[in-house]
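Archive entry. Fields below.
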Amino acid sequence: MQTAKLLIVDDDADVLLAAKLLLKRHVGQVDIEKNPDKLPFLLGQTRYDAILLDMNFTRDVSSGKEGFDWLDRILDADPTTRVVLFTAYGDVEMAVRAIKAGASDFVLKPWENDKLVEVIKTAIEGKQAGSETSSSGQKGTSPPTVIAQSAAMRQILDTIERVAPTDANILLLGENGTGKDVLAREIHRLSNRRDKPFVCADLGALPDSLFESELFGHVKGAFTDARDDRAGRFEEANSGTIFLDEIGNVGLAQQARLLTVLQQRQVTRVGSNKPRSIDVRLVCATNADLNARVADRSFRQDLLYRVNTIELHIPPLRDRPDDIGPLAEHFLRIYRKQYNRAVGQVSPDLVKHLKQYHWPGNVRELQHAIERAVILARGPVLTPDDFFFGSSPASMQGTGGLPGGDTMQLEDVERRLIQQAMQKHGGNITDVARQLGLSRQALYRRMEKYGM
Ligand SMILES: Nc1ncnc2c1ncn2[C@@H]1O[C@H](COP(=O)(O)OP(=O)(O)OP(=O)(O)O)[C@@H](O)[C@H]1O
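PREDICTED_STRUCTURE:
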């Protein structure tokens, strides 16, 4: 530690002085700076092992935006620098976001001396050992693993193993976040087309006006923005697998176009009259009840019969509690590596708690909850406290109205509204997004932000 260099940036002179007095007993060189605008100059002068950075400079007290900008600039200059954040109590959400964005750790103000020393030492040792910096939001690089401990999921995987090598069309049904996308990829991986493309089209996010050109392609000049010829998703997937996600969201006119393509196994690019043959394996998914849609005539029966040669119902996570422990362990392995955290296990007590919660966002919600808990964990074993900040899983199930009080922040309100809408719509992302006036992507971003 005597060769190590640390920079502390905070616009409060008292904080700078106190932190320096404490840390210079442990670290060879401790520089302090009150003005973050000097950071580029300082980084050009010295290669710091670690930087202790305040997130809330006075210019931008509440959002931490300035802190995020500086974090980016430090990591751009040297991605191996360890950045530890100073955050105020109540800013834990921001700290989680910052760690996802590449910071190594955070310390709450006012700090405990031992804790601050320990975090800075760990950061410097990590830098000197040359280990990877915490990821900047990249997901694990290993191929996706399907966790299936429950009898229901084992049976689904068993069916998939048997039907994957055939070319049968498969329809995956289940609530949002139950793993339909993962299973579609698994079907492709186990099929004879595994070395060919796997192409996903999210039909739920596709405006009607783009439907045809996105799926079937277009030729130059077909419409104002068509500056070049472009292949659509079906052509891209040729000889491989096409995964049509949220097929229940497609309007009747588009259903007719889709049906023609599937029957004829040909696509015609928008603006052209030359059909092209395609050879694709079709996997579709939806959280909608397609039989009910057929009954109320909003979904074509002939299209349903075309896509559901094999129909697989993925149960919601609350109906397969045996998967919860293994999934939690699986995500823990991924995130402790990604965030370089020494968290070893999920405690049996935590698994018990997790099983009591009803997981409206299913596996996706569990995944985000574990990610957040890993970031925030203060010990080697994840416990219910890391998880829910002391609120019991049962309280998370409450459907009550918004709590009053003037201490509530805008983000709390937003999170609560999403939770309520999720409960109302049984976790159906499309309906929740519609109720809240958001796109599905915007909703996912917010759910990610709130660890839902
Ligand atoms: N059985 C599983 N094993 C491992 N990871 C899983 C499993 N099921 C889901 N996941 C993970 O949970 C997250 C959500 O899964 P996925 O995107 O497949 O759900 P989905 O049903 O397609 O959701 P949506 O309906 O919202 O598109 C993904 O990150 C996925 O990797």
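CURATOR_NOTE: The chain has three domains: 5-128, 151-315, 319-449.
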